[in-house]
Phosphoserine aminotransferase
Amino acid sequence: MKMHNFNSGPSILPQEVLAEAANAIHNFNNTGLSILEIGHRTSYFEAVLHEAQQHVKSLMGLGNDYEVLYLHGGATTQFMQVPMNLLDANATAAYCDNGIWGNKAIKEAKLFGNVAVAASSADKNHTYINKQLNIPANSAYLHYTTNNTVEGTQWHHIPDTEVPVIADMSSDIFCRPMDFNRFSLIYAGAQKNMGAAGVTLTVIKKDILGKISRAIPPIMDYRKHIEADALLNTPPVFAVYVSMLTLRWIVNNGGLVAMEQKAKERADLLYNALDAQPLFTPTVAREDRSLMNAVFVLPTPELEKEFLDLCKQQGMVGVKGHRSVGGLRVSMYNALPLSSVQAFCDLMTDFSNKHA
Amino acid sequence: MKMHNFNSGPSILPQEVLAEAANAIHNFNNTGLSILEIGHRTSYFEAVLHEAQQHVKSLMGLGNDYEVLYLHGGATTQFMQVPMNLLDANATAAYCDNGIWGNKAIKEAKLFGNVAVAASSADKNHTYINKQLNIPANSAYLHYTTNNTVEGTQWHHIPDTEVPVIADMSSDIFCRPMDFNRFSLIYAGAQKNMGAAGVTLTVIKKDILGKISRAIPPIMDYRKHIEADALLNTPPVFAVYVSMLTLRWIVNNGGLVAMEQKAKERADLLYNALDAQPLFTPTVAREDRSLMNAVFVLPTPELEKEFLDLCKQQGMVGVKGHRSVGGLRVSMYNALPLSSVQAFCDLMTDFSNKHA
């Protein structure tokens, strides 16, 4: 059966990436060794890491004032590592509270310094992006989540502020061109648009480092990672390799302009179908709809279950909403073919006709 | 060319594990999806995680007073996470200083509390295990490294003490039966005997938790991981899968008794050859020789280079010593066939004859 992978993450990867990754497990670059068996301080792995770093800089249009690290620990660890490195105990950082992940980031930051919530959308269950920011002038930085995977909302501009901007881009990185030079720090778990689970991209503008007085454990200190040329400890070799292959695929397939065009085609197709079917109701403010994750509901739990069972029969996986919000969710990351969205829209039409 | 993989880690894995991992990248368990594309909160991944946890408990002979976690961050992160969870600011922990990794663990622990060095082998460049331990009675725990990957030494018994024992077993875990119930915490980066780089096993006796007053960031708090059934955040799915396959391979190949027997066969073959060849000189105390990593030198840098070039020509990789100690090193993890050690011994004989 042809599968349609709408998983929210870990999620669909390009077929070419999967094929090359499987080959590398047998024999990596004709070394006669598996990618799982090579040392991380070999020229083989260094070439992988450097290519990945180069793709990141080139896709983002960044110069030498930025460093590209592949770190362990997932974006959740960055919730801690960012304030540990950048927020002094008596200082204040501004955070946007627009969803479950931003909220977790706020909780971790409070262990290290003061948090000013610049804006919250909690009043409407995070079904919109609150863009009216109140940022204290002395804030060490502003932190926000560019795309809310769980709630299905996305920022469509970069917040305008004088303080350094830090973004969790886990679920929409590399889906569109942005002025990446406006960020002082960007991080993203790889398992949506840039690889498999097990590694986190962290891009750092060097001038924000070294400004706090806290003693930082070396393994958590961005400066130590930079000094060690991004090889402070054994990296997750295979996860870095898969991310490099995925970035290479983005570059070879038209870069971020092409990624955005395809994302808009997928999202237009899906949201137009949702708007046309009275049985299916999108839950978020129209202007804040995510290009990556569409969240919607059916009129009753019974209909939701019936529809989800139908999805399963049709090889459509990942359609159930996040356990914290319920409903349905279709995730449409870079590697998802338009034909999968079309198949889903067709199923919605059939289902609506049946229940008309 | 037939390769002989003597890498110190990431290192050789069983051929069966590599074949199954490559298959799972194409189609995992007939799901029609890649293992890289499945959600971590699916029954598919839960079965993988639970099987891995079960193999760990069964190989170690542990009961329900222990929890098995697969964590991000490598053993280096455990150097921090152990004292963060277990060492109060005014308390003391005892550490053995028998090599580069134990030393790094000591440095991280000092950021959290007091460290008493129970024994050090620094006086002889860590070429032996100092087993005369001086452990303050009020120590929160004793921390030691069971096998020193870089220096080639290994503990052949468990230190006898009343305080909780914590061991970094990264480079010799599952190479032999041990009384694992004598440990309060065991951790190991997976990339030697139990998988590929990108995940760290942490086995915790629950009664040591919750005894300190520090506010622990949730993502670093062992208790939060246990409460979340080892799925606090997105795990490194593929790395956990490869570890599960490797543990399954150990179980299906005779368990720890068989692993030890094979380790001794490999080590006896190699050390006997080293002792017989005057050109090759092992650097560590005979009684502390490691079953996993044999470290030795040749009389001159020129001869070392000539021999290393020969190794390369013969498809023998990973023979160069760690950058911090130099010389040569042959790592002999569980998956290494005896025939590779034999090939290496033959090469030593040829080389010695040529230079006789």
Remarks:
- The first strand of chain A starts at residue 4 and ends at 5.
- Chain A touches chain B through 63 residues (CB under 8 Å).
- Residues 277 and 353 of chain A are 9 Å apart (CA to CA).
